[in-house]
Amino acid sequence: KCPSCKEITTGSSLDVLEIDAASNTGVDDIRTLRENVRYLPISGKKRIYIIDEVHRLSGSAFDALLKTLEEPPPHVVFIFATTEPSKVPETIRSRTQRYDFHRISVSGLSEHLRKIATAEKLDVDDEALFILSRKADGSVRDSLSLLDQLSAFAGEKIRAQNVIEALGLLDRQFYFKYIDIIAAKDSSAGLQMIKELINSGVEISEFGAGVAEHFRNLLILQNASEPEKILELPESEMSGYRKQVDYFSSGDLLRMIKIISDMILDLKSGLESRLLLETTTLKLASMESTILFEDILAHLSSPTESPTAEMKLDSDLFGMPNTRTAPDNLSPSLPRLPARPAGEPGEPPKRQTEIKPVLPADKGLSAEDISSGTMVRTINLPMVQSSWPKFLDFLKNESQMLSSMMAMAELREVKENIITAVFHNAGGTSKQVVEKPEHLGIITSSLREYFKTNLRIKFEIDFDKSPVIPSSKPVPKVEQIDPEKILQEDEKLRALVEKIDGEIIGKQKAEE
C-alpha cells in the first residue's frame, strides 16, 4: 500500500527499470547502463535494474558489465532473469546470488487452478484440472494460458473431454490399450491402432511422448518404495498402471523407452512419421524379454570334466558377434558339441560330457524345472489372454473335459510365469477336479508345450464372481417332423437313405 509499491505495480516507478536483453544485446547498451547507475534513487532507497533474458547479451556486453558488477554503487541492485543460466558466463554467475524457481507439482498446480476457477465462476471437474496441470508441466503461466483457452472453447463448464478435444490430446485409455497390445505381441492390432491414431489427427510426437511417459510410470511403480508420491496420479489411472506393472521387466521398460526416444528424435529428421510409428510399434511388439546376465552365467556355470569343451552363445543375447558356444537350450538352432579331450588332432574323444545349465531358483520354478535346464521365456497376462482360446483348443486334444473346465475360469494374473486362474463362487468342484495331480500334470505340460516356456498354473475361487459360460454358437432348434412322410415326398432323399442305410432324426434350417 506504500507509494513505492503502487508505483512499481503500475509501472511508473523511476527507481525500478526493466531492460530486455533480447533487444538490447550490444555493448553500447551496457555502456549506457553503466552511465545511468551513477544516479541516485528518486523516491526509494535503492535503484533496481532488472535485465530479462540476460543470457542473450553478447560476450562484449558481458565484459562491459563485469566491472560494474565487481564494484557496484551502494544504491544499485541488479536482478538478472534467465531461463538458460548455463549460457551466462561463469565470471558473471560467480558474482551473483542465484535463486532457482522450481516447477510446481501437479497437485499444487491443480489446487491453484481450482482457486482461480472458483473465483472466475468456472465449473471445472477434477480430472480436467489434472490434465491441464500435467500438460502445463509445472508452469503456472502455461496452466493459466491453457485455462483461458479452455474457458473460450467450452464456456463456463469444462470437463475432461473438453480438455482432450481442445488441446488435441489422447484419452489415457488409448495408451493403456496400446500397452496391452504391445504386451500381447499383437502386431496386427497395433497397426490398426496406429490407423485410428492417424485418423484422429493427433500428433505422432505427442503420442510418442505419452507412450514414453506411460513406460516411465510403470518403471517407477516397479522400483519406487512410494510410487504414488512420485507419480501424483489419480486413483483411476493408478489402478490401470497396477494391472500392467507385471507385463514387462525393468530391463524391458528401459529398452522400450530407448526405442520410443529414438523414434521421437527421428521424427525431427524429416522421415515419414507414420512409417516411423509403425516400424516402432512392430519393434516393440516383437521385442524379446530381457535376459539377465546373471541368468546366462548361471547357464554356463555348470562344471565340465573337459576344460577345452566349447560353448557358443547366441549373438542376439548380447548384440555382438558369436565368440563362444552355449548349450542348445540357449540357441536351439546350434548342435551340441561334445567335449574334446586334449590329444592328437582328429583323435576321437574318449568320453562325451553333457553340459547341463543351471537356472536360478527365484523364477517361480520347481526343482524339477530347474534341473531340466530349459531356458525361461517371460510370459505376461496379455500374451496368455490373446492365446487362451487357441490353447483351450490345443488342450482338447489331451482332454476335452479339462478344456471345458478351464474355459469356465477367468485369467486373473500372470506373475513370474505363474498363471492365476479364478473360478466363480460355485466352482469349487471344478477347482478340485483340475487340481488332481494327474489332471494338473496334463494342464501344465500342455501349457509348456503350447507357450514354449516353463509355466505353472494355480487355481483360486472368487466368491464375488458370477459363473462364466463358455462362448459357443447356439444350437439350432431341431424341427419335429414325420420321417416316413419326408421319405414319401422326396424320392432322392429316400434313395440316399436306402443307399447308406441311414435314418432321419430331424430337420433344421440351413445356415446362411
Secondary-structure blueprint of this entry?
Blueprint: H1 3-10, E1 16-20, H2 27-36, E2 47-52, H3 59-70, E3 76-81, H4 90-93, H5 106-119, E4 123-124, H6 126-136, H7 140-154, E5 157-158, H8 160-167, H9 172-183, H10 187-200, H11 204-223, H12 227-231, H13 235-244, H14 250-267, H15 273-286, H16 293-300, H17 367-372, H18 381-396, H19 400-407, E6 410-415, E7 418-423, H20 428-434, H21 437-451, E8 456-461, H22 483-489, H23 491-500
Parallel strand pairs: 1-2, 2-3, 4-5, 7-8
Antiparallel strand pairs: 6-7
Description:
Helix content is 49%, strand content 8%. The protein is mostly helical. The strands form three sheets. A three-stranded parallel β-sheet has the order 1-2-3, with no helix packed on it. It has a three-stranded mixed β-sheet with strand order 6-7-8. The protein has a two-stranded parallel sheet with strand order 4-5. The protein is elongated, with a radius of gyration of 36 Å. The termini are far apart. Residues 304-375 and 470-478 have low confidence and may be disordered.
Radius of gyration: 36 Å
Query: Uncertain runs with pLDDT below 50, 5 residues or more?
Result: 304-375, 470-478
Total E-strand runs: 8
3D shape: elongated
Proportion of beta-strand residues: 5-15%
Distance between the termini: 86 Å
What kind of sheet is the major sheet?
A: 3 strands, parallel
Strand order of the largest sheet: 1-2-3
* Sheet/helix structural class: mainly alpha
How many separate helices? 23
Please estimate the helix content: 40-55%
Query: How confident is the prediction overall: mean pLDDT?
Result: 79
